Amino acid sequence: MEKSAEKEGLEEVERWTSIRVKRSTAKMLKQIGRKVETYDEIIIKLLRRVLRRRELLS
After folding, report:
1. What residue numbers bound the domain in which 27 lies?
2. How far apart are CA 34 and CA 49, in angstroms?
């Protein structure tokens, strides 16, 4: 039986998932991001911006 990473006291490695987006959405993400950025990095940047604005409004 294999021990889990948590039981051994090691940090769990982040795993990738796939999400479905329309081609038009992917195109917009490409327009927002820089050439070297991944979709993940672009989405994180957008989420941080939204969260910062919410904090400023509260």
Report:
1. 23-57
2. 16
11: number of Cβ within 10 Å: 7
Decide if 14 is inside a domain: no
- What pTM value is reported for the model? 0.68
Residue with tokens 């672009």: 42
Residue 56: its H or E element: helix 39-57
Helix/strand/coil for 11: coil
pLDDT in tens, the chain (58 residues): 455 545 555 666 888 899 999 999 999 999 999 999 999 999 999 999 999 999 888 7
- Structurally, the chain folds into a number of domains equal to 1
Does residue 9 lie in a domain region? no
With respect to residue 36, please indicate whether it lies within any of the assigned structural domains: yes
